[in-house]
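Supplementary Methods, section 5.1.

A reviewer requested that the exact input to the structure prediction be made available. We therefore reproduce it here, unchanged from the version used in the analyses.
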Amino acid sequence: MFTDTHCHLIAPELRFRLPEIVAQAAAVGVTGLLVPSASIGDWDAILQLRQPEIRAVAIGVHPWFADEWRQETEGSLKQILQQNTNAWVGEIGLDFLHDTPRETQVSVFRLQLQLAQQFSRPIIVHNVKASAALADIIRAEKFTCGGIIHAFSGSLEEARVFIRHSFKIGIGSLLLNPRAKKVHIAAQSLPLNSIVLETDSPYMQPENRNTPANIRQIAEIVADLRGISVQDLAAVCEENWCDLVAKSS
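The structure derived from this sequence is encoded token-by-token as follows.
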């Protein structure tokens, strides 16, 4: 069994054929799904998802939409976390290539990190050219609940910093690009107990149709790089998932 730890199921490309998408994934052994939000407008639709394959949802404000945050947003997110024990916080983080002001991104990330700590929830972290800033904030906020560094594409040194703070490293669709050398190095070299698999579907592959079923292909590449079986990789990834969930129990 594999879990796609990052799939945007309410995106129109997936939402309007969800039974087909879920069945295709299950047919290749992808039977668990984690569904993150991006903007406040996603929250209600994600909370209404009822597919039994959804192991958790993540509610939060993506750094691209950080300027949507209002004073009442904090109260709304707090209420959702109170009422939904399987809700993580995400997709949150920093994107220093985006035109949303950095100070706004940092402020909104800090507020959400504090709520995640308050409710003992893992987080899903969006990170573009911001590893040092993210690590500094996580340390400063004394965040201990861990989570997933989504769509990792950095160096082994960057990954190890996050691993020391109880995060798993999301290995995803970038691995399907043979030119993505850093991702291949990470998939091959990081401790097995520090990785999880994800697609970021329907994104990351604009020329193709990206769905949770692609976890199978990603897993086969990782297993080949590590010299292990797909079945052994699945068992380790499941242990890693359970480790994350235990932080919120």
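The two ends are 22 Å apart (CA to CA). These observations are discussed further in the main text.
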